[in-house]
Every structure is written in structure tokens, then in C-alpha cells.
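Hi D.,

Good news: the full-assembly prediction came through. Inputs first.
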Amino acid sequence: MKRISIDPISRLEGHGKIEIFLDDQGNVANAYLLIPELRGFEQFCVGRPAEEMPRITTRICGVCPEAHHMASTKALDALYHVEPSSAVKKVREFFYSAFYVTDHTTHFYALGGPDFVVGPDAPPAERNILGVVHKVGVEIGKQVIDCRIRNHHIIEELGGRGVHPVAGLPGGWSKAITKEMQQEFAEISRQNVEFGLFSLKLFEDIVLKNKAYVDMILSDTYTDRTYYMGTVDANNCVNFYDGMIRVVDPEGKGFVRYHPREYVTHIAEHVEPWTYLKFPYLRGVGWKGFVDGKGSGVYCATPLSRLNAADGMATPRAQEAYEKMYETLGSKKRDGRYQPIHYRLATHWARLIEVLYAAERMVELINDPEITDPNLRTPVTSTPDEGVGCVEAPRGTLTHHYWTDEKGILTRVNLIVGTTNNYAPIAMSIRKAAQGLIKKGTAITDGVLNRIEMAFRAYDPCIACATHALPGQMPLEVIIRDAQHHIVDRVVRGGS
Amino acid sequence: MAGNGKPKFAMYWAASCGGCEIAVLNIGDKILAVDEAFDIAFWPCAADFKVKDVEGYPDGYIDLCLFNGGIRTSENEEMAHLLRRKSKVLVAFGSCACEGGIPALANLTTAEAIFETAYINSISTDNPKRVLPQPVSKVAEGELHIPVFYDRVRSLDQVVPVDYVIPGCPPEPHQIWAVLEAIVSGAPLPAPGSTIIGAGKVSVCDECPLEKHEKTIMRFYRPHEIVPEPGLCLLEQGLFCMGPATRSGCNARCPRVGIGCRGCYGPLDGVDDQGARMLSALASVLGVGTLRDEEAKLEPMIEEVMKTLVDPAGTLYRFSMAHSLLQRARVQTGNSTQEVSDEAHQH
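Then the structure:
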């Protein structure tokens, strides 16, 4: 059996590998996504004081440390049985929304966007953020950099550090917002809303007005029908900071709606010997392998999943954008809510809708009189035992679960991390794209390789922590070997 | 790889989180100056070069290589050797490469325990057949390979010689830029040999705005147990802070928001063991006994206070576990790198 190794895939260089096997006819028999990395946080955090976890678990991911910091801080609230004041919750959510704006923005413009803005078959050297700037003008490039700078400013001011924030405490937050900060942050929030609207307009002009792109989004190659997960508020609208977990089936019917602390009842993880990462699935359906459909427990937790699992967005302009996406992509309403969109490439669109929502939410929060409450801390004296903390990380539902002795020393830790939720769907999307794009006699061109990458790029996988943060183009080397492992063909893309 | 005579730049990550890459990105538009001054020869997250390309370069081809992340797997170790060979100047960038960092807290446990916890005992894992990841496994279509997971985490300098060290978790952008700007402008670097650059020469306390009043403490409080008086030294209020034993350079960011330092900028000049140094610094803060007291009388009193410092190993060595005297003793009894590799976890 012939094998195509995509090794190394860069921006995951050394941290991810795709193996594609071809059958005797030259069609794709199977494809594997291998994750060669494990650090063991769940074990080495045992014995540490629980209150240090928001500062330790940030190091799981330097791209989304804010998500781990927040899930961990919320786990401490539960562990110590302390309900944060509404001012604390608002400050945390404001901080977290600023993080969402910068994180999603960087992904769209630096990683996902170039495939559409510059084009999937453009020369690799142009398929990056610089190519985007060339295509749409330097003014827009400047706007993207400004957006990162102003939101990282908020993260540093409120979190203590630009990377790996430190301000979260059980029941509290160590840095309050002064009146001066409020004024400055209000202006930043306003600019974020404008930037969110602008980005959606750009998506419309460049992607939606191009029939070839729309056809690609709607094609079967990039479609998988799975369950969808997301956090919803009391009105079943998308929320990033807090709420209930809702899962809908591939037809959009509610499958389950539960409190994050009940996650073990609903989620289980499957182990394979050829990778260090586990595969979460819905316990109520079961692990049926790498297959989609209602009978398989594979679920997705992405921007598109959150929108699919919710009834809508909690802010007005994001809601308009939400309705437009579902209408445009032909989703029909059933029982008052849109049916799920299964086109994986639409995740890019959903991500921009979430940018607008996060920005609008920032405006609401920063104008709330309570946001400048100077008292965000109270001493915590209760005896800790067990606590679950959960937020929507940009790449999926993030769960931290801690057990301690009566002194608050960790005895057990369990984590289900954003991208991990999507491991099985990503692997399936890669296989489907490979099967759709490589057929008997297909010349393995750069364009073919890039279109395979596009299948997983939509998920913004954080296995590649740094992937979505910097401009660049993934280099690929595809080695085709015969059954005796002799190289029969080699295609290199990237380098110069 | 343009032959324009520009120096060649590389950045790589081993067992790390990606925060070092983000910190470099956070130097803002100055990244363009870096781009102008250097040719990128390898930077997986930013450019199109592959390990194969690096293997093809002549030895010493890369002028400056920033290596972040510790050595956790066989693949991390192979990349460290490859990049050492290909680089004129190899920099251990960030806490993990410098001294193990947070992932080296795993050196307090074992690879077996890590596997047991992650794949067998995890409450959400359903694995009745006790399947564990294997370096080589057979699937229907052929063989699949993943790197070997070693028994412990090592810093970069425990695997290959390192020219310079830029500490911090992650290094602060203004410090990164200070180093790169100096290099870009052609300023000479200090003599190489694990030389620390991009950091201060004094302690975090020396750049901390919180006021000290020579107060002593009778016990430690945990961060959530008290609300500290704003503007005053945290350690003198009983909140553990590694400031006295930690190199300056971060601008005391954590104490500024009322949170104690955990020592990510590493030990002070001339200090080998950051935790041991912190213990001796604490002596002046603990309000036990007087100068005239006998050591025998003081010891139990000090012990009482120290009992209120929970998890001393994981706190005093939060970032420097791979470099701690304790760990080095273990490595030395194993007779250095080769044997540590032999102990690698073979499932």
C-alpha cells in the first residue's frame, strides 16, 4: 500500500503529522493525524496548591492562556464554594471578550483568511498575511495590527501580563478597572465593533461574491455531519464566559443540555496507540470510530458549533450577522431555530460573527456602572473539595476539574481542552478532503496539498499553538513510497 | 535563503506552549525591522522551511537561533542536536529552554504516572483495554510512529552547549527587542557560554514599586486567604513572593497587580539554585528569635513558620526544576545525557 507522509507540517512542525495511505488503485484508503506531544499537566499538578492552577495551566497554551486562566479561576470558585460578585464576573468577562477579539482576528487574517483572500491556488509565497495586505491594502494590515495591540493592552492592564495572565483568584480578580481605564477601554470596545463589522464586510466582498469560493464552501469535500456543542445563556444564546452546555444532533434537535460540572456524564475520551492525544465523544451515543452522522458520538466544538448549538446571538448586530449566515447558506428553520450548518469552511464566517459579538459585549460591559467597582476580592475561608470550571475557549469548550484535600492541595486533575474536542472531527475532515482531492492518477500539486490543509485550518487547531498567530505558509513535503518504503515520488512545497 | 549576505535567523519550539512565539510577535511593528535585518532560515510558525531544509544547510549556517521549550521527547532532543550543529549562536529562549519551566514540574513524578493518569485513570477516559500510546504501532494500512516520551524534562543546556540564555516565561517583549536591536545594530555580544542576556542584573524587588518597611512575618498566607494592603510589599504581608531570589527584567509585572512573583526570570547572577537562595532570603523576613539566639533554639521556630508555606518544592522551583540541585544530583547519578536517554520511557 502506498503511503503519503505529510511530515513535517509546519507551524505544527514537529508537533503534528499526517499519514495518508493509498490503495492499489491509487485512491485514499485512510488518513491519520498523529499528535507527537504530551506534557502531563494532569499528573504533575497533583500536589500543587489549587490556587496556583490559574498560573500553572496557562502554560498549556501560550496562544490562549487567557482561556486556561479563566477556566481554572472558575474551577477555584467552585472548589472553594465561593460565588464571585457580579462586578467580578463582569470584569472577567470583559477581559475575556478582549481576548476573543484579538485571538479570532489573528486567526482570520493571518491563517484562515489568506486561503480565501489571496486564493487557495495562489503561489505559496503569497498565501500569508503579507499577501493579504498586498491584496487588500496596507491600511487594512495596519488595522489588524492595531486591533491586536489595543486588545493586548487590555489583557496586560487587567491580567497583569501580556502573555500568561495572573489576576484570577477564587471568587475574585486582583486588578480593578479605574474610571480612567474605563474611558480608555470604552473607546477600544467601540473600535472593536467597527472592526468586527468591517471584517464581516470584507468576508462578504471577497468570499461570498466569488462563486468559486461559495461552491467550495458548499462542497461535500468539506462537509461532515456531526453533533455540535457550545455554551449557551439562559436564552440559549452563545456565551463565552458562562452558561449551560448544549449539544444538538446533526439535524439540529437538542440532544442534551447540562451544567458544566456534569461533563463526565456526557463526555468520554477514547485512546488510540498511535497518537498522544485522546478523542472525546458523546457517552450517550458511544464511540463508533472516525465516522459522522447521528449514530456516531463524534461532536464538534468550534465557532460554527457554538452557533449551531445556540438559538442565536445575545447582541443585536451579531444576531443580524448570524441570521444572514444561516439564510445565505440555505439553512431552514425548524421549531423556530435554524438547522445546523455542516460546511466546515463556514467556520471562518462564524468566527467573524463571534468577533462582532465579543466586541458588542465589551461595549455593554464597559458601560455598566458596576464595572469600576474597586472591591473585587474577598478572603476565602471555606474548605475546598472538588470543582469544575468551564469556558468556551476560541477553539472549543474548555473544562478544568480539580479535586483537593481539605487544605486545598490537589489530589486529582482532569482537563478537556478546546482543540481536543475536535480531534476526531479534524482527523475525519482531513481524510475526507484527501479522499475528495486525491484520486487515482491525481497529480499531487501544491494546490491539492493546500486544499487538504484547508480542511483542518478551519478548526484553527491549537495543537499548533503558535500556528494562527504569525504570518506564514505551511510547508509540506509529501513523500510517496511504495510498499517497500522506496520513495517513488516527492512533492515539496514551501521554502524558497 | 536569498544569497544577499544577510545573517540567517531561526526560531524553534520543543516542549513548550507557544507563548515565546507570541512574546516575539508582541514586539509589534518592530518585527518588520527584524525581517529587514535577517533572512529567516527556519521558523516553523512563520516561514516555509522544514527540518529537511535545515538538515541540508552547512554546519553553522544559521547565525542566530532562538530555541524555546524543554526536552521532553526524543524528537525534542533530535532537534536540539540538529539546531546546535547548524547554528553559530544558539540561544536558550524562555524558561523552559533555560531551566525546564512549568513542564519540568513533571520531574517530581514519573513518566509511568503521567501515562496512568492521562490514559487509564482519568475520570473521563474510557479505556478498558488499557491502550497506551506506543512509539511504533501497527494499523490496518501500515506502521505509525510517534516520538519516545522521556522519563524527565531537561533544559536545553543539559542536552547541548548553549551560547546565550534569555530568561522569562515568556521573555518580556521589551527585553526581546533590546537584544534583537543590539544584534541588528551590530553591537558586540558578551562572551558566549550560557551567558544571560535580555534581563537585569539585580532582583525583581529592586524594580518593584511596592514599598518595603523591614517588617517581619510569623506565617505565610495563601493568595486567596487575605486581601493585601495596596502599595505594600507582598512578602512583608505574608504573601509568598520569589522577588528577592529572582532576576530583574520583567518590571515586576505580577507584584504590580497584587500577585506574588513565582520566579520565571530565574536565579540571580552567581546563584546556582534559585530555591535555596530564596530560603536564605526568607531568613531576614521571618520574625522568629533574635540575633543572639542559638541555632538550636531558632530551628524549630523557623520550621513552624515554614510549615505555612505549602508545596515548597513546586513553589521554590516553579520554573527551575530541571536545574535544581536536587534534579542535577539525579541526572549525575544517571551518568549524564546518554543514560538519561536510555531511561527513556519505552511503552
